[in-house]
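Most newcomers find our protein records easier to grasp once they have seen one. Read left to right, the backbone structure tokens trace the chain's path through space. Nothing more is needed to start thinking about how sequence determines fold. An example says more than a description, so a record of this kind follows:
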Amino acid sequence: MTRWLFLIATLGLLVPSIATSTPVRLKDLVEFDGVRSNDLVGYGLVVGLNGTGDGLRNSPFTEEIMTNILERLGVNVTGEQFRPRNVAAVLVTTSLPPFARSGSKIDVTVSAIGDASSLLGGTLVMTPLNAADGQIYAVAQGTIIAGGVTVQGGAARVTQGVPTAGVIPSGATVEREVAFEFNSLQSLRLALREPDFTTALRIESAINRHFGRHVATMLDPGTVRMDISATHLGSAAHAVGRIENLPVEPEIRARVVVDQRSGTIVIGEDVRISRVAVSQGNLTLRVDETPLVVQPNPFSTGETVVVPRTTAEIEREPGTGLAEVSAGTSLSEVVAGLNALGVSTLDMIDILNTIKAAGALHAEFVVR
């Protein structure tokens, strides 16, 4: 059956699209309690740049960290004056995946924080990565793959992409594991990514139906709790492995999403409009300034003056008329009605916003 019917408006065209709905896997709808990533961050140094590093006069922190690294390696640079252009201070960020073990490799992102123009070809020196608790959980090092390039001449400069940021695939090694015993859980909470009473009830029913007994309980529209002991599986890991692929049909709220930057409108299937009349037209005001310079006659006394001349015009484009929308209009009728108005995407956004303000659009209106 057709459960999904949505509308995308872009480039001034509204096109209805119908897709056949299929149930979604449970693990695509919820987050399991304790199964989460942890953000890591570190401050490091990139070396080996081709003259595109930080200007140490403008970035004194780069010189400080470079001095500290050299002194740890046994090189005494106290009081020395060095101004290399092949180093850059960077912030290194990544996410520690759930259940990551010591020795595992994870990707890292490297971003310049000084006035370096490019990290292309640079190498990140060993950088510890800390979590919010201040502990070191990984160490990053490796060659950076920059995301852009900069070409500069005497009077022109062209930049493609973002050369001041890059990635190091498998560039960090996990050194500390997150202390969490998943199998010690006696109950497991499932947090819905999109809280909804109906979807939570369907998840509860699907889990109980799978085990043939009362195992799951809906606590609120965003949480379903599962009793691990009632599953008779012995561990939370086995329980999650049994339920994460259960098919569940989510319930979607009536919603209209508008992206003003790209001119995109997405309307859900369940959007309804009450009886309302819509009229749209454009008014253009044009003001032209054509000042006139008046000079005195030859061999006469006087001075040159500027006489202002202003031309003002008002143009009203033909309106689209008054279009009436009946009560309880479905999405397909809304699509046909907006297309019949023949207005641009920006005007459609204004129309939908005005209909919402009039209380005739029965849906959540999201503007981005």
About this structure: The chain is about 15% helix and 40% strand. Residues 24-34+182-248 form one domain. Residues 1-20 have pLDDT under 50 and may be disordered. The helical segments are 60-72, 197-211, 228-231, 236-243, 331-341, 345-357.
